[in-house]
């Protein structure tokens, strides 16, 4: 098994480190455009192998996509992170071209790879990679729901003073302020969360989740990396180990939830074929309205990408 992570910045390096520690591959390649960065991070990571006790051979290369040839899973984290005061959508003009050119290079050397997008604005960068890769929708999708759900679960665990392991939750929609955490599909060891927490507190947690990325940008002056990197690695694990995990993933919809031609976070089964099934959960009128509102927001940014005319 060979896996590539494109981008040796904070998110890419964290993701690669998680992949190595989980021993998901024999060979893990990290590519970056900046001379020496991925070589250095890969070397540093490889030197943790005797300590953290793994065999995965981690190698870094500068822009050498030939070294990534034959990768079965590729995680694309390339692009600029946002700064305080920016929305993820503000990154589209710079990151669209980057994601396009990276995807072209990836496909040229690993035509069969499953591609996971992490770059922002997430839903639309997944669309950009899909247009570039020209692959079936089960093989090009985006990471965000795993991250957003993790934030939601972490906040709930803190509030309830219970283990995050026992919080199960579903969150749908775009990876932006319109994302839709679903309390009706949130349980704590099987107990409906609404039985355990007051409505006001739950609503505050939902709001905090929606702006969870921005909270970290404001604290650190740049985007988060531990949870985004770990979330992408968890998706890689589900694919590589054919776990059939159910995760919210940014996927191209083809009639599900009454929507078509849009990339949106929905629950899917992830296994060796990538997205093996899109799950259609029953949403009530209010939940459906929120999901549709999120779809409108994502569509408007997809339109901006279309109008950039870079996919002739
Ligand atoms: C996140 O949610 O942490 C990422 O999308 C990065 C960001 O800018 O918020």
Protein described:
The protein has 312 residues and is an alpha/beta fold. It folds into two domains: 141 residues, NAD(P)-binding Rossmann-like Domain (Rossmann fold, 3-Layer(aba) Sandwich); 163 residues, L-2-Hydroxyisocaproate Dehydrogenase, Chain A, domain 2. The chain has ten helices and 14 strands. It has a six-stranded parallel beta sheet with strand order 3-2-1-4-5-6, with helices on both faces. The protein has a three-stranded antiparallel beta sheet with strand order 7-10-11, covered by helices on one side. Helix 5 links the parallel strand 5 and strand 6. Helix 1 packs across helix 9, helix 4 runs parallel beside helix 5 and helix 6 runs antiparallel to helix 7. The two termini are 34 Å apart. The model has no long low-confidence stretch (mean pLDDT 98). (2S)-2-hydroxybutanedioic acid binds next to helix 8. (2S)-2-hydroxybutanedioic acid (LMR) binds next to helix 8.
């Amino acid at each position: 098994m060979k896996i590539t992570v494109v981008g040796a910045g904070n998110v890419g390096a964290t993701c690669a480190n998680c992949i190595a520690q989980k021993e998901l591959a024999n060979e893990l390649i990290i590519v970056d455009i900046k001379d020496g960065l991925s070589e250095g991070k890969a070397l540093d990571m490889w030197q943790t192998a005797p300590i953290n006790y793994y065999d995965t051979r981690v190698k870094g290369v500068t822009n050498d996509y030939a070294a990534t040839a034959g990768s079965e899973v590729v995680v694309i984290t390339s692009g600029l992170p946002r700064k305080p005061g920016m929305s993820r959508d503000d990154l589209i003009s710079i990151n669209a071209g980057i994601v396009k050119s990276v995807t072209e290079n990836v496909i040229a050397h690993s035509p069969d790879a499953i591609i996971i997008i992490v770059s922002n604005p997430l839903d639309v960068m997944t669309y950009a990679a899909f247009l570039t890769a020209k692959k079936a929708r089960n093989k090009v999708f985006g990471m965000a729901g795993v991250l957003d759900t993790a934030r939601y679960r972490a906040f709930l665990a803190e509030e309830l003073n219970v283990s995050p392991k026992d919080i199960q939750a579903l969150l749908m929609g775009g990876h932006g302020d319109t994302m839709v955490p679903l309390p009706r599909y949130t349980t704590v060891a099987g107990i409906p969360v609404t039985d355990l927490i007051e409505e006001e507190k739950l609503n505050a947690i939902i709001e905090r989740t929606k702006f969870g990325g921005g909270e970290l940008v404001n604290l650190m002056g740049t985007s988060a990396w531990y949870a985004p990197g770990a979330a992408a690695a968890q998706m890689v694990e589900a694919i590589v180990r054919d776990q059939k995990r159910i995760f919210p993933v940014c996927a191209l919809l083809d009639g599900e939830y009454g929507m078509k031609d849009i990339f949106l976070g929905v629950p899917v089964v992830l296994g060796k074929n990538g997205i093996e099934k899109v799950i259609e959960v029953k949403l009530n009128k209010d939940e459906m309205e929120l999901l549709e509102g999120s779809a409108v927001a994502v569509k408007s940014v997809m339109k901006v990408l279309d109008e950039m005319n870079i996919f002739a």
